[in-house]
Design brief:
Largest sheet: 2 strands, antiparallel
Number of strands: 2
Radius of gyration: 25 Å
Helix content: 55-70%
Structural class: mainly alpha
Number of domains: 2
Number of helices: 7
């Protein structure tokens, strides 16, 4: 059995109530709760087998949800240029010509990049600089074209 040392420290007043509630909900005492918190922060395994089991169950549920809905963090819909350009144009019309915001909107709408990844501001920036993309976006923003039967744009 390993030795234990007594350690004294202070907790800011605004955290005392949250700390006390967390300890009560855990069903352990303050010492056991703090030891688990320190171990978690240090990346060491929890000492309580029940907590380890619940952590494993949470991870398995997350993985199962990812399998059911596609890869974890990857939007479910494949790339659709017309839909992506429309979302980008709508976002710009709303006054948000910002790569981070546009990437969030594309992910929320469920569209992947051409490479099958989630959007971020850098991927959006690279995509927007591709030949003709900025022109297509500008045309939709300005209302100069509509989605038509002959292709993406009817000028």
């Amino acid at each position: 059995m390993s030795k234990s040392l007594s350690v004294t420290f202070r907790i800011p007043a605004e955290l005392v109530e949250s700390f006390t509630s967390a300890v009560s909900e855990s069903g352990t005492d303050k010492t056991a709760w703090l030891i688990d918190a320190v171990r978690q922060k240090l990346g060491q395994p929890e000492s309580n087998p029940d907590h380890r089991l619940m952590s494993l169950v949470d991870r398995m549920e997350t993985a199962a949800a990812a399998l059911a809905g596609g890869k974890q963090g990857i939007p479910p819909r494949e790339y659709d240029e017309a839909a992506v350009i429309q979302i980008v144009a709508d976002t710009i019309r709303q006054g948000f010509d910002n790569g981070r915001i546009i990437a969030e909107r594309l992910n929320e709408a469920g569209y992947q990049t051409k490479a099958g990844k989630a959007w971020d501001k850098d991927l959006y920036s690279v995509w927007k600089r591709q030949k003709g993309t900025a022109t297509k976006i500008a045309a939709v923003v300005d209302g100069e074209c509509q989605r038509g039967g002959r292709g993406f744009f009817d000028w």
